[in-house]
């Protein structure tokens, strides 16, 4: 589904991505972990076409999206979904209309068909009966659920999660992680999760990739990463102060 090849990106002389190589298979939930400021969000912006690399390729179903113009990239984005950190909901419209928005903008479905899809999506994320609430009237966890329903409403082939549990308490965090797993099982999308939630993310993702100093230093299943002998991985997942990762 996604193949990243020798991806390089430099800002003001600082090489943030230094030859990233990573393959993400169809229908897999891949978590990308690494220290704060280590380039995870920069990598995500390349994957959704918001940034162009200095060199390298990103193949999505065999198409190198780094070479696409805006019109062709928009066609690719029709099959992508993004759950941003803050949810990016529209504060001035209610939950129902937030979820319906992509269908009204991108499809020719009737309002009756849109209604059926929206009600089902809200049910899938545990928000039955919350249609008329506004974002300011629901909790942070519920806003994340609304945002996930909106992300999934167009049934994307690939979904990107940008630190989806940032700022949530441990109980809500676990709830959102469980919701990601259950919706993934239902919709079978390919998922890429940018996360710093250690060890919780190990229970969510099928595979883990660690980004450090601009390169992927290790990939594997959760168990493989937890049992890694790589000193960078060991220090990061254990939160140690001693090791190759500088505590700044």
Topology:
Layout: E1 2-11, E2 14-24, E3 29-33, H1 40-47, E4 55-60, E5 63-64, H2 70-77, E6 80-83, H3 95-106, H4 111-124, H5 140-152, E7 158-162, H6 170-187, E8 190-194, E9 207-212, E10 215-220, H7 222-226, H8 231-238
Parallel strand pairs: 3-8, 3-9, 6-7, 7-8
Antiparallel strand pairs: 1-2, 1-4, 4-5, 9-10
Helix pairs in contact: 3-4, 3-5, 4-5, 5-6
Verbal overview:
The longest helix is centred in the C-terminal third of the chain and has 18 residues, at 170-187. A hairpin with a 2-residue loop joins strand 4 (55-60) and strand 5 (63-64). The protein is an alpha/beta fold. It folds into 2 domains: 1-79 and 156-248, Rossmann fold (3-Layer(aba) Sandwich); 88-155, no CATH class. It contains 8 helices and 10 strands. The chain is 35% helix and 24% strand. 34% of the residues are buried. Strands 6-7-8-3-9-10 form a 6-stranded mixed β-sheet, with helices on both faces. A 4-stranded antiparallel β-sheet has the order 2-1-4-5, covered by helices on one side.
């Amino acid at each position: 589904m996604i193949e990243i090849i020798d991806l390089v990106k430099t800002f003001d002389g600082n090489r943030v991505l230094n030859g990233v190589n990573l393959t993400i298979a169809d229908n897999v939930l891949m978590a990308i972990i690494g220290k704060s400021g280590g380039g995870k969000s920069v990598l995500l912006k390349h994957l959704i076409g918001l940034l162009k690399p200095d060199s390298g390729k990103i193949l999505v179903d065999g198409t190198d999206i780094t070479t696409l113009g805006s019109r062709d990239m928009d066609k690719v984005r029709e099959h992508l979904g993004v759950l941003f950190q803050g949810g990016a909901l529209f504060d001035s419209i209610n939950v129902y209309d937030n979820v319906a928005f992509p269908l009204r903008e991108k499809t020719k479905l009737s309002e009756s068909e849109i209604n059926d899809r929206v009600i089902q999506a809200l049910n899938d994320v545990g928000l039955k009966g919350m249609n008329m609430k506004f974002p300011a009237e629901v909790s942070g966890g519920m806003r994340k659920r609304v945002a996930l329903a909106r992300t999934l409403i167009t049934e994307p082939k690939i979904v990107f999660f940008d630190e989806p549990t940032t700022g949530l308490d441990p109980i809500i965090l676990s709830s959102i992680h469980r919701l990601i797993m259950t919706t993934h099982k239902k919709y079978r999308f390919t998922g890429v999760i940018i996360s710093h939630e250690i060890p919780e993310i190990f229970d969510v993702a099928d595979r883990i990739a660690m980004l450090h100093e601009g390169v992927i230093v290790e990939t594997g299943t959760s168990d493989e990463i937890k049992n890694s002998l790589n000193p960078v991985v060991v220090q990061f997942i254990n939160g140690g102060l001693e090791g190759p990762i500088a505590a700044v």
